[in-house]
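To whoever picks this up:

The nightly regression suite flagged 4Fe-4S ferredoxin iron-sulfur binding domain protein as changed. Nothing in the input moved, so I suspect the structure step. Input below, exactly as stored in the fixture:
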Amino acid sequence: MSRVVFRDERCKGCLLCTAACPSEIIVQSQRFNQQGYKVVEVADQDMDKCKGCAFCAMVCPDNVITVFRSSATKENDNAA
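Regenerated output under the current build:
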């Protein structure tokens, strides 16, 4: 299963990742980081919808997002 991890301390709440996510699973949370920005999150029940595409990480200007791709996703990319 692919998944994303957010570094809350670096997030500025720009929401570029929410617009880039084709699965529309990244949302603004109600939590604030130490700088006072609302951070983004993926609900636990939605994480299995992550495709591992890494569009969110590519558009993030602050290197907040790390994408872990499942081996099944990697195998499908290699076959294409």
